[in-house]
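S1.2 Input.
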Amino acid sequence: MSAYRDRDAFASLVNALSASSEFAEVAFPSPLDSSPIGADRSPLAVLVPTQWLEQPDSASSLMLRRVSFTLTLVVRCEDPRERFEILDRLTSIVQNAIEGSTLGGGCLAGMTHLRKGRYDPASRHPELRLALDGGFCYTIPSATGHASAR
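S1.3 Output.
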């Protein structure tokens, strides 16, 4: 078995979001600009890696790799209250899919979570956007034990 990498965790995140059948599209790694999305793409989930940090695990010779990401949810609906309710429901679905997941068996479940969400005050009618900051963590055998196979 090859060593676990960021791409494995992100593939698992995309699969989990797609498997919910709640999104017209799950985009990765496509940053979202401020342009309105088409109605045929709503609701939309956009997953973008933001950073990683490695540090030695004090209890072993392993390295811990912490990876952060932003998951932006976009909904379109004419009614503002209904738009918020849809986004709120989708947030719960996403939290249930991600929180505590091993992301295909390679991540530490207790460190896979969404940390916070930010509603976009610049969202243009009929859209509402929510950026969720999340992260996951996995171990690397050593400082030079990174998987480099394709």
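S1.4 Remarks. The domain at 6-140 is CATH 3.30.2000.10 (STM4215-like).
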